Amino acid sequence: MAEGTNLIYCGIDWAERTHDVALVDDSGQLLAKRHVTDDAAGYKILLDLLADYGDCEDNPIPVAIETSRGLLVAVLRTGKRQVFAINPMAASRYRDRHSVSRKKSDPGDALVLANILRTDMHAHRPLPQDSDLARAVAVLARAQQDAVWNRQQIANQMRSLLREYYPAALAAVETWKKGLCRPEAHELLRLAPTPTRAARLPRVQLRSALKRAGRQRGIEAEADRLHEVLRGDWAHQPPLVEDALGKQMLALLIQLEAASQAATDLEEAVDEAFPQHPDADIILSFPGLGVQLGARVLAEIGDDRQRFSDARGLKAYAGASPITRASGKKSSVTRRWVKNDRLNHAGYLWAFSAISASPGAKTHYRKRRDNHGDWHAAAQRNLFNRMLGQLYHCLQQHELFDEQTAFPSTAAKALEAA
After folding, report:
1. 81, 117 in Cβ contact below 8 A?
2. Three-state secondary structure along the chain?
3. Which of 87-101, 197-211, 244-258 has the lowest mean pLDDT?
4. How many CB atoms lie within 10 A of CB 58?
5. 62 touches 82 (CB < 8 A)
6. Which of 33, 178, 268, 384 is packed most tightly, with the most Cβ within 10 A?
């Protein structure tokens, strides 16, 4: 703001249809409050209100809101305006600072959010200024991850149901990668939803089902194996109960097929979008990171180079670095529970794959297990912590991963052995 004028802060309590807005100055004086609708007209009223109090490209008014998504946030992020996504639990604690009666109202919450920026803006982090491509990759990668989780959840429900009345189906698909999620399994279950019907299936129908599912090799042998398994000696539910469970399974099969198709479609979308990003080559140069997993990593760390001041901040954000709890004579070092769960999950898969893809990573993992006594999960987390620091360095310096630089002792031993 211009010299001699008060700094102004904005708080927005958002809702599904309407939003409450409050503006305060640096002394805590309420300057304005509005109730705007969640549409283009309401957004214009909000932007005009900010402009009336000095919001411009050179001196934007910072905004606090309890979400990081949606059209309202997209509108507020235009230009250089800083938008702070305040955790609702943190906002609740701030509310208790000003009132002991536990009263709550939407206009009051907007005022609380504005005062959070007024008093503690330095303690909160604005939304990163990621590029549009990075944000698009984030949308696709997170959606694909959710689709995979949803597919697995439905598959687990299907497995539990089949165990109740149709163990032959589980025995038939156990040798297939992805098991119940494969098209062959869907065709088989659709063709024979009950073990009684499955036992009467001839080989010709089994071969046709495998062909419809897209199988091209080993059809004869696989049809013979399925025919033998399905005609085995299995326990049965009463006929009426078996038919009812078969109908329930078919309803669940529809959900599983939809979830599988969604995961496949989103995977193809990520395959198309992620390689276009400038950081893709650096991320993919790391052992253990493919397109899908690399896209998940990019989705969570973004491409705003100012988001993390150093590698330690990124490691803490991912939950890779330990946390120390000390009080008096007691001190303990434990894993982090407050973290980005998506990035932490991607890091677990990354470290698991890197152990096989990188000699240095495997040596580091074994050293943590043998010399430091770490359990498997702790050793993987330590490896993830190290490689995350290397990724931070490579992204900052625009360098590709180099095995000899990342793990110099292992590379030196390999050269001596050669």
Report:
1. no
2. CCCCCCCEEEEEECCCCEEEEEEEECCCCEEEEEEEECCHHHHHHHHHHHHHCCCCCCCCCCEEECCCCCHHHHHHCCCCCCEEECCHHHHHHHHHHHCCCCCCCHHHHHHHHHHHHHHHHHHCCECCCCCHHHHHHHHHHHHHHHHHHHHHHHHHHHHHHHHHHCHHHHHHHCCCCCHHHCHHHHHHHHHCCCHHHHHCCCHHHHHHHHHHCCCCCCHHHHHHHHHHHHCCCCCCCCHHHHHHHHHHHHHHHHHHHHHHHHHHHHHHHHHHHHHHCCCHHHHHCCCCCCHHHHHHHHHHHCCCCCCCCCHHHHHHHHCCCCEEEEECCEEEEECCCCCCHHHHHHHHHHHHHHHHHCHHHHHHHHHHHHCCCCCHHHHHHHHHHHHHHHHHHHHHHCCCCCHHHHCHHHHHHHHHHC
3. 87-101
4. 8
5. yes
6. 384
How far is 112 from 154, CA to CA, in rounded Å?
Answer: 42
Mean pLDDT, residues 93-122: 83
User: Considering only CA atoms, which of 352, 335, 412 is closest in space to residue 387?
Assistant: 352
The two tokens of residue 16 are 């599904």
Q: How far apart are CA 193 and CA 200, in angstroms?
A: 12
Contact 280, 126 (CB under 8 A): no
The bridge status of strand 30-37 relative to strand 18-25 is antiparallel
pLDDT in tens, 297-329: 999 999 998 889 899 999 999 998 888 888 888
Non-local (6+) Cβ contacts of 300 within 8 A are 138, 318, 340, 342, 343, 346
Asked if the model's pLDDT at residue 406 lies above 60, the reply is yes
pTM: 0.83
pLDDT in tens, 227-267: 999 998 898 999 999 999 999 999 999 999 999 999 999 99
User: 394 is written with which tokens?
Assistant: 């490579």
The pair of structure tokens assigned to 304 is 């705003």
Name the β-bridge partners of 11: 22, 64
Tokens 């330095």 -> residue: 122
